[in-house]
């Protein structure tokens, strides 16, 4: 009797260690598709690796896309919906610079071939964001899945919910807090600006007309202002600038060095020096050799972001085409 009992507890213990992960309180879990579409993540990984080897700049665009989906109506794929009257989230000004929708469509078609009607567009955005970061030498993290797709996409909601580049620290903190994200998540996820580009329109006022008197932003390094002015002439909205000059195609922690030197491109980047907790994080990650701490933090914060107001269970739908409701 004693032996089978020990065997039994041993099995229970092993199940606890290696059994299927339980869904968290949002209803998401790592490996949601392991039975219903076992090759889903491998298929996404392959397409994104190929995409980035051909067009490295898309990594940044695909990371940003998941962020912009999650901050408006939660991570429900509503960013991807088309509107015949151009009233969808993607038609809102802050989303007009998003790129890479066709890559999401490509991933979706491949997954529909493999297992029709199973993998949501919202989950595709989350997995793609991870693989995009991995593709530019950033961290890997386990993506929770099990999101379903929302049916509503509203331009006004995008305008109201996407934080503008001129946000100050109070707006940034409250915007993150509203969505269950911490001050640490704010400073860690802002590190996403280690890759990618910006259009002059997002920071031009810092160069030429900061308070409406033809002045520039005193919190921005004057040498950097001079350099930016060469690229962005007054009124220029469309020229582009690297956000992390020198390594905008590598996911590293140079962003924090730049911000600490008052070379963060947006007011929202500079504002991270105005709070003791975010400032401390920046200072401890500036000029540090080794990205391990930031990499680990980034994975944790991306998982947190991926939990915002998700639809699970029988809510929403699994779309056949990410751009239109079934
Ligand atoms: C904290 C508030 C944030 C603000 C105000 C903000 C603002 C912006 C702006 C204005 C741009 C440039 C758009 C353009 O002119 O083309 C941009 C680009 C970008 N953002 Fe953010 N962002 C924020 C947070 C984040 C987060 C949380 C992530 C991801 C974790 C992220 C990832 C990116 C990336 C990768 C780009 C480059 C996009 C590209 O190369 O196409 N941002 N952001
Ligand atoms: C979009 O959202 C705004 C703000 O919440 C709301 O006033 C408006 O009625 C919504 N539009 C549609 C078509 O539902
Ligand atoms: C931050 O920005 C908000 C909205 O633009 C504004 O209402 C608030 O007064 C600003 N706070 C500080 C401390 O500047
Ligand atoms: C600077 O801003 C002020 C106030 O918003 C505006 O009246 C003025 O036309 C702007 N100047 C330029 C050169 O854009
Ligand atoms: C959505 O709109 C884009 C651009 O407006 C277009 O290229 C795409 O084919 C549309 N997708 C669907 C499914 O209607």
From TrEMBL:
Keywords: Calcium, Disulfide bond, Glycoprotein, Heme, Hydrogen peroxide, Iron, Metal-binding, Oxidoreductase, Peroxidase, Secreted, Signal. The active site is at 68 (proton acceptor). It is an enzyme of class 1 (oxidoreductase). Residues 27-326 form the Plant heme peroxidase family profile domain. Its cofactor is heme b; Ca(2+). Heme b binds at residue 193. Ca(2+) 2 binds at residues 194, 244, 252. GO terms for molecular function: heme binding; lactoperoxidase activity; metal ion binding. It is found in: Secreted. SUPFAM superfamilies: Heme-dependent peroxidases. GO terms for cellular component: extracellular region. Its EC number is 1.11.1.7. Disulfide bonds join 37-115, 70-75, 121-322, 200-232. The record marks 64 as: Transition state stabilizer. It catalyses: 2 a phenolic donor + H2O2 = 2 a phenolic radical donor + 2 H2O. Ca(2+) 1 binds at residues 69, 72, 74, 76, 78, 89. The keyword Calcium applies. PANTHER family: PEROXIDASE 25-RELATED. Removal of H(2)O(2), oxidation of toxic reductants, biosynthesis and degradation of lignin, suberization, auxin catabolism, response to environmental stresses such as wounding, pathogen attack and oxidative stress. These functions might be dependent on each isozyme/isoform in each plant tissue. Belongs to the peroxidase family. Ascorbate peroxidase subfamily. Belongs to the peroxidase family. Classical plant (class III) peroxidase subfamily. This is Peroxidase. It comes from Rhamnella rubrinervis.
